[in-house]
Design a protein that fits this description.
The protein is mainly beta. The chain has a single domain, classed as Immunoglobulin-like. Helices cover 12% and strands 45% of the residues. The protein contains one helix and eight strands; from the N terminus they run αββββββββ. This is DUF5017 domain-containing protein.
Length: 128
Amino acid sequence: MKTVLIILSILTMTVSCKKEPKLDTPDFNLTASSVTFEAGKEGQFDFEGTAGIISFYSGETGFEYAPPGTAGSVNKSVTVKGYSDARPTKFTYTYAAKGTYKAFFVAKNVNIYAGKEVVRAITVTVTD
């Protein structure tokens, strides 16, 4: 009888302790809606907030953002921050050719149960 009670106690604790952790939506914002850079020179994007993972899509050919599942999307990005990295407040990037680009930052929080993301767009004008 004592063995049965011990087994039931262990099972009860195991089942009751299984709780999915809460996953917050990333708090991530760009500090401007548009920027102007010179071609071939490093430009800086400023942002604030917290997110586990941040990716950057420059808008250049081959680096356009398309939501997951979009047919024919390339979805190549540059990693700005991984989970173990310190929280950045800026990111620098060099555009090779002049033009106007629609760049995107994708901020994500993920765990083994789910993922939440926030997408922020910015217009980039590149001059000579």
